[in-house]
Design goal:
By secondary structure, this protein is α+β, with helices and mostly antiparallel strands. It has 16 helices and ten strands.
């Protein structure tokens, strides 16, 4: 026999084959329950991380990581401001923009839109819109040409294609003593379409050259500067450091504020999904409690003999805690291994299941994201594993204390 004695006895109880069939069955159910719950948590949270990352990438394809704006007033010296931003920590590039709420029409269709004035040469440095082009290219937006690139859904709603003209209407002031609002109208020629995979962008945004947008609005500069950083997750902090290089007249907004509703909904879903799936582990933990209670009742004589040989109540607690911890921790370890295996191979497993079962988990005719992306975060894996270990350890406390209260004289009276 090796030391310490409680660990040795606990391992013998766990590995011995003298248990009744029912006790052994509950033991295996407990182990598989912990493994299944941990694996399901890791897999589901990894898929949700992947969906969040995919959504963030698509949203930022047109909006960059952060923006500096002047509350609607033109930034006349925007080139100088961009030069002042150069060298800011983590900053990759900056580009001007001018957003205008407008109505687009081409008989018989009409749709609201955001007409965004951009500099085609600088835009590709802060967004990935060039990669989302389906027809035409950004270079087609030449200054003074009154050309426009539409989102694919917006073009479909207006029933227009490349070469067609679209009438853009924005509110304007009549001038003079009158305060009447007279709409400004201008025709733009469609020279391309883009598709980023989000209805909120493909069905709303229209791109024009910055100089055309300024002339249409009657402004002499853009109303904002968009920023791109090396690390999108650090963009909120880096954007404020970059803005500190400029005069305090510009407001700072980052992607997490512009799309707060989306990511708050995802965080709530991840939290609720984690709590629901943790119930699988909780059920397995209750099974561990039941298993140990039955083992304690079955081993009352053994406990009494160990007590008479000098084993302390604390030692008895250690015996049954060793048994419960072994079951729980093997299950948690197996669950982590299985969960990582599933999460890292979702792109292989999901197509195989779809082909075998004959249906799509995410129908491409309904969803923009037709596949299930997966992104494993080590922090999530560690938290899930630690939570499972803590729960399984806690499950051993009550049965172990009950075993320690066994009175040798009572247990051996009829032996």
């Amino acid at each position: 026999m090796f030391q310490p004695v409680p660990v040795f006895v606990g391992l013998r109880y766990s590995l011995a084959r003298e248990h009744s069939f029912f006790v052994s069955f509950i033991t295996w159910v407990s182990l598989f329950g912990v493994a299944l719950g941990v694996a399901a948590l890791i897999t589901v949270l990894s898929v949700m991380n992947g969906l969040e990352s995919e959504l963030r990438t698509r949203l930022l394809s047109l909006t960059a990581h952060a923006s500096l704006n002047s509350a609607g007033a033109p930034i006349r010296d925007w080139r100088k401001r961009i030069q002042q931003l150069e060298g800011a920590p983590g900053l990759v590039s900056a580009a001007p923009f001018l957003d205008t709420d407008a109505m687009l029409s081409r008989q018989p269709s009409m749709s609201g839109a955001i007409v965004r004035g951009i500099d085609p040469e600088l835009e590709g440095r802060v967004s990935s819109i060039a990669d989302a082009m389906r027809e035409g290219k950004l270079a087609d937006l030449e200054p003074g040409s009154n050309r426009m690139i539409l989102g694919r859904i917006l073009a479909y709603q207006l029933q227009v294609g490349v070469g067609d003209e679209v009438t853009v209407m924005i509110p304007g002031n009549a001038g003079g003593a009158s305060d009447a609002i007279v709409p400004r109208l201008r025709d733009f020629q469609v020279v391309g379409t883009f598709e980023v995979g989000l209805q909120e962008l493909d069905g709303v945004v229209a791109l024009v050259n910055l100089q055309d947008a300024e002339a249409f609005r009657g402004l002499d500069g853009p109303t904002g500067i968009r920023l791109k950083f090396t690390d999108v997750l650090k963009a909120p902090e880096l954007a404020r450091q970059a803005a500190a290089r400029l005069a305090p007249s510009l407001n700072v907004r980052d992607w997490s504020e512009d799309n707060e509703a989306y990511f708050r909904a995802i965080r709530i879903e991840k939290t609720m999904m984690g709590l629901i799936l943790m119930l699988i582990v909780a059920v397995a933990v209750f099974n561990i409690v039941a298993t140990l209670v039955m083992v304690v009742n079955d081993k009352r004589t053994d406990i009494a003999i160990l007590r008479t040989l000098g084993l302390s109540p604390r030692g008895v607690v250690a015996v049954f805690m060793t048994q419960g911890v072994l079951i729980g921790w093997i299950g948690a370890g197996a669950g982590v291994a299985l969960g990582l295996c599933l999460a890292l191979n979702v792109d292989v497993i999901v197509p195989f299941l779809e082909q075998s079962l004959g249906f799509h988990f995410m129908d491409p005719d309904v969803y923009y994201i037709s596949g299930l992306p997966s992104e494993v975060h080590p922090g999530d894996v560690v938290r899930i594993g630690v939570a499972a270990l803590i729960l399984t350890f806690s499950a051993t406390v009550y049965p172990a204390l009950q075993a320690a209260r066994t009175q040798p004289a009572e247990a051996l009276r009829y032996e």
